[in-house]
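Re: that chain you flagged

S.,

Sorry for the slow reply, it's been a week of failed gels. I finally had a moment to sit down with the sequence you sent. For the record, here it is as I used it:
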Amino acid sequence: MKKILVAASFPKEAMRGLTELAEVFWLRDLSEGELDALLPSVDCLFVQFWPQELTRERLARMTRLSFVQSALAGVNHIPFGDLPPGVRVSSNAGGYSDEVGEFAWALLLSGAKRVVRWNRAPEASVGRSPLELGRDVIVLRDGVLGVLGYGGIGRVVAGFGKAFGMKVMALTRNSVDEEDVEPLVGDAGLDTILKASDAVVIALPLTNSTRGLIGKDRLEFMKRGAILVNVARAEIIDQRAMYQHLLLNTDFVYATDVWWTKEGKEMYPPELPFFGLGNFVGSPHVAGPSAAAAGRPLRNSLDNLLRFAKGEAVSNVVDPADYV
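Prediction finished late last night. Pasting the structure tokens below so you have them in one place:
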């Protein structure tokens, strides 16, 4: 029977099915001594955010470790370089797709319809005719939607785009069998999407190749009145370049649910007052937690853990070369 160490805040009763197939230990229940004694016999880790207790030295002692399951869709928090050789890591891809895809569209619509701008500064509409105000509103039908990352979240976002009568262009490394989606690849494909799109939604993982992917030059590729939505990771965008772009292009909108990480913590950058800008929309990283509240991420990751416990092939295994 395999041993699984859980470093996540999910309730034990929700994982009862797993305890019937494996020996399950909760990190929060273990003393330092108990943890050290257990480590050499652990086959699998189930982590939400990487726990500080699992240091490089302790990982080196986990000689039986063969699988790590992330409760999050992103796995950039996992120290791939410190894992023992041959350890497979699975993301929780698909666990957040519907809820995060919905939230992406909430951000997109709030930017396109200027909802936040007018709510924040109602005096800006005083003295302007309804027709003049109406010209500020972006009509999405017949426009182009760019989706960066065509996994579960990206497909949900694209589905809403089609319902709005938009042409969908997708940046993807995988084949796309949908006739009404134009797939593009690589840097050239990204630049094509940014230049053509009226709205772009980022649903990419944070990897070596996507960190800082959108900086000053690529922001300048985009239409002056475009909307850029980020429900992935903030570090995909150069934060200072984004702030300057918003200052210089007041018709451009950046709407985000994710924030740049500083000292290991995701936070709003006080030195760059984004919230003082009329063309910025921000929320406190709640898209993913809305999915967690519905229970889907736990069910999705638990299914993969059950496959591991049964000796079956696991899904959503990532390439460590993208992260090391």
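What I noticed first: The first strand starts at residue 3 and ends at 7.

Talk soon,
D.
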